[in-house]
Amino acid sequence: MTWIDFPLYSSIIVAFWVIGLVFLVVSYKKQSAFKFATSAFLIGWAVMILFVVKLWLELDRPPMRTLGETRLWYATFLPLIGFVTYIRWKYKWFLAYSFVMASMFLVINYLNPETYSKTLMPALQSPWFIPHVLVYLFSYAVLAASSIVAIKGWYDNYKGNFNIETLKLADNLVYIGFAFLTLGLLFGALWAKEAWGHYWTWDPKEVWAFLTWMGYLIYIHYRHFHVNNSKQALTILALAFVVLLVCWFGVNYLPVAKTSVHTYTQY
Amino acid sequence: MNKNQPQIQRNLWENPWGYVESFFIGIGLIVTGLFLEVFSTSNNAFTLSYPYNVVFLIGYVLLLFVAYKWFTNSQIVRWLTKVPASISSITLITFLVMIMGIIPQIPSENNIINNLGLNRITSNWAFLLILFQFLTCLGLISIKRILQFKWANFGFILNHTGLFLALTAGMLGTGDLQRLSINVYENKPSFIATDGNRNEIELPFAFYLKDFIIDEYNPKLALVDNKTGNIAHNDGKNLYLVEKGETYYFHNFEVKIDEFLPNAIRFGMRYEAVNEIGSPPAAKITVKNIENDSIQNAWISSGSFRYPYESLKISEDYSVVMTIPEVKKFSSDIDILTQEGERISTVLEVNKPFKYKGWKIYQLSYDDKMGKWSNLSVLELVKDPWLPLIYIGIFMMIAGAIYMFWMGNKITKNKE
Fold it and tell me: How many residue pairs from chains A and B have C-beta atoms closer than 8 A?
């Protein structure tokens, strides 16, 4: 069980998810189709988790080192967020989105095959590694979801049927995502103290992580005090996500990248 | 809160100050800071060290307290405790940090970058001034919420006060932070460390390195393009750990590893295991061309600082090479010798520092040219007396984040 088996597993997963999506669309007309959609999603997700677990065991290290491995986690978390959000707020379109996005990440991974590498440099061998990365990826996935809500808000606004409930959903997602973003940032600081002797060194990745944090901080403060200026709030949310994207993989392409300890390895 | 505000026509600088005035002040601070950068001749970063930073902190907090308690009706204090001042300072800090995220923070040949200090943002006056305004807002509202304590504000206080503590202590603490590195050689006591400016500092204790140990992963097998010398992309599956008995596929070649020796040197036609300084790993491989069934047999080696590498050319275009093994773990088995004649034994490893007399001692590096035969270990000593205060701030924020995750949407719900 390695990345070599990935094409097989990802096809099975995506097949189940596509079937689920079809049933989900049908369920708008016929509610009874919804349980078939859920079962297909869940079976696909179970296969996904099976793959992640077996990959972890086979690699003898947490599969969190390369960009492709982070995409794998993204594809694992998005369905979870979709389901929790559905159970809490009953948005079918959001459930569909989370599975479409998760499938997209699997397809990207399929098109950019991973190298089969078991090595992990000493600095990453720390009990902080797993919580730091998992908390971050979970947060990114939730915040990505919030930005989709923002896009939907923009679209509704354009159509003239904007509903403030949409923005409330975005708020809830941002609160959850921001809490995890803060945890990821602080876990990173505590880990850095153990590994490099200082909790904050303004490494380029840290700079952009800080910027992402500030972006959502602006959104939260703005929303809290200007409850009715929905359009500005949506704009801030969209911009914050752009910063998040720069932080996640854009940093690798900036002139500052060569001074970073955080760039994902290519091999 | 500002529901009716947009309808009211106000003049600039009329009560209460809003976003326009806030950004005006904030940008004013930045421009002032940049002027200071251009015209100040000193190149040293502005830092406070003990006892001035302690005095500053106490004075600052007292001043914030006095300002909130007795001057709460003054225009400036009212402005600082309101949202426009916070949002404008957060936005402007974000802007300056973004510059830091784009322009490398290293000496530059560009005059504009140099004169404005854009390659040293963290010590730039523009940054310090706007950060000062931000901290003042944060400090004032922390004091406000603490003095009007309500359980509903618990998360708010944790987040805001925690950030205030962590940031203020972090900034003021840089003056007292000591970072030294020391070269320690096997079987020799060492007590002369060097600081960031290459000054030698005598430690009140000595390190005695008993053994420096490196664990390595097995080397990897890779396919190299003969023309460019780069690692070829074999559909992404191009690097495999060398293990005896494994078979790997590169394009239309089947590569079988018949034998693997972690330390070996060449004797005539083959490699033999030895226990000698600088002996590289070597492997015997059989390469079968699937298209025409031709078979090649050879020994390859990654080489080391003492011995050359050996690769195998499998076609006009490609060669099979062995990469230099990656380090899995490195550690120093040391004794700390005190002036009182005590001997404290410990093993230092990356991510596992050791605490001794207010110092944290880290495994930093080694002689990477010698690799696993290095008898030099570089240690780092860090003393940060402000750390407890910073950690209190960080843990308050962690608690605040958990609180936010738990309560976040309930609060929004009640508000509407």
Answer: 155
